[in-house]
Amino acid sequence: MTTPPPSLAVSGLAYAYPDGHQALFGVDLTVGRGERVALLGPNGAGKTTLVLHLNGILTGGAGTVTVAGLPVGKKHMAEIRRKVGIVFQDPDDQLFMPTVREDVTFGPAAAGVRGAELDAVVRKALDRVGMAEYADRPPHHLSFGQRRRVAVATVLAMEPEILVLDEPSSNLDPASRRELADILRTLDVTVLMVTHDLPYALELCPRSVILSEGVIAADGPTAGILADEELMARHRLELPFGFVPSSVA
Amino acid sequence: MGAGHAHKLYRHGHSPVHGLPPHTKLAAVLGFVVVVVSTPREAVWAFALYAALLAAVAAKARIPAGFLLKRLLIEIPFVAFALLMPFVVPGERTEVLGLPLSVPGLWGAWNVLAKGTLGVAASVLLASTTELRALVLGLQRLKLPPLLVQIASFMIRYGDVITDEMRRMSVARRSRGFEAKGVRHWGVLAKSAGALFIRSYERGERVHLAMVSRGYTGTMPVIDEATATRAQWAYAAALPLSALLICLLGRTTA
Amino acid sequence: MHVPDGFINAPVSVAAGVVAAGAVAAGLRGARRELDERTAPLAGLVAAFIFAVQMLNFPVAAGTSGHLLGGALAAILVGPWTGVLCIAVVLLMQGILFADGGLTALGVNITVMGVVTVVVAYALFRGLVLLLPRTRRSVTVASFAAALVSVPAAAAAFTLIYAIGGTTDVPVPKVLTAMVGVHVLIGVGEAVITMLTVGAVVAVRPDLVYGARGLTAPLKLRVDGELVDAAPAAAPAAGGSPKKLWIGGVVTALVLAGFVSFYASASPDGLEKVAADQGIDKNVEEHAAADSPLADYGVQGIEAPRLSGGLAGAIGVGATLAVGTGAFWGVRRRRTAALEA
What we know:
Chain A is α/β, with parallel strands linked by helices.
């Protein structure tokens, strides 16, 4: 019996923006099925650039990205976009439809799902984030935490192979932050979480990688990485005041 | 925070008028206004009947008269224009309270005021009984180009977001002791407007990314379809058709 | 400035509606060509921006304040195609949601406030940017001039429409004087605000100013290319193609003939002289003899020499262009046919 291909395999990925600024210098990263991995790194390390390569919004550099064995490229673009669910940092960017329901419907409908099946998919996704009762509300009437949860639902509705979250805990109050963590823990999908919130990474992701200056600079158990003061300092990563990783893990 | 939606005309309700499909209402209002505009001005009684028709609709929709009248204020700039007409229009003169007024000017003022007011009142009734979202769906059903409908829905979705950003910038300015008092402060305000444009445009680019990430290829998947039964069409048509009858009567008698 | 129902008679409202629909259709095509699938989100957000910025109050003095109309700003920032679309959508929504502007007058409103302001502002802006030295100052100067002219141009367009299809025979010269007087003042405000706003954008993200793209390309001023500008198409050189040149020519000619001829100079004599010099008077007479409804109208319906001069100018230029273009197309069609044969 063969093992399933990893959810995500990035190899030798390099990319320069058209203006000449090079952001990635050969990224190698493999995320196995069902793993939860935190992607850490200082500002300007190339995290967003990497994320935009995962579903083929940026292409044309060197190296390859494969999602569940499928190479990211023009040929499979629709399939790739369905498999890679990106939750962007600002839920207002993500929730562009007039109501919550329509927004969650957008992805599966674009993929051709219709009728009763579509309704079921949408309801399930909203249930998973506990937002079913808000289905007919316009997104701008929700709180920030609720909007973030709906944003997760819009992506879950596409039943992705891998969920990519860009700063999921930013701007959330502690309660919303915990609620989101509870939701993320119950999901049985592969998760790649880009974050500056190191305690959140420790709480949710057994494994972390540090992206620094366009390459993966460290890869290992989150607790070990956070405890390595020298490594952390080298990549401008700092734990919140008074936070001791070993006391939690 | 919540002040962002204060400008919304919609009044929540469950009247038969609220329940009509949006495209039937849009078509009815448009038909009504066209009929009103084509009615000869001399048929004064016809306009009274039109007003009565609208009043009946408002009663059916349980829209209070005060609410309706307040919204009519939007017309004021043109009322000023209309009030000038009796003074500037040449032609036969008549004496009103000692003022020499032009007869064609009076007719012109009456024409503009009557038709303009009826038009505004009809639009206010439409907007106050139809949700934003439904209006856009209605436009879609009335075969407005899909791209235009998309642009309109994005404008509605992000109108509040952008206005909120503008308000936050204003709060930030005032928190630092800036109060715009006159022309010499325009530079600061314009800088905010410029920043607002950049933010809006960049947000547009990010929204596009989010759409593409979920499989957008240029057309919106059709999700909601407003549909109307024959009975609903007939119900909505009552307004323009009775107006048409009045108009025809007005044309024969005037 | 939103025209309510009942101001303009039905036939002219319908005609304006056709013009507006044509302009919006052209805008949709043009915007899609430039922005592709990004059209809907970008135009939607810019429309939301225009809508918001119209609510930004600019204090004038003694408690009064004004606000931006935004036609010129939209044209300069996002180009004429997307600009027309955005203003049209804003007007449509204002009409339906806020009863601001009559539904039957929607065509008039879009034509006057969308098409005329955007086209006049963009043509003038682009022309000035090409003529002036390639500096940022030129961009601000050009924005000022474009916005300044666009507002009274819209007022003139409205007066023109009113003269043809107004429901009351207001003496046209009086309306004209009032409209233009007021709108020149408004235009000054609009011009200052537009200039400052465009200046603010140019200072930070010059690549976002559509009308100044030709200027930024060699300067390499892009600030942060992060995220989205993965493939900023090589700046489409405005004014390069014959089609654009043609459109620019038409607009300039119409503006000059129809607008400048009765606004630039205060003295009617001067205007009549312009009309006579250009052979426009004669043109009108010929048209009148031909019994065409427009020409007929031009002579009988309007007493004011200024307006009839200007109107006739516009009509004359339009007719000449139509005939000329028709001939051009005919020749070209025949030539391509001959080539293919």
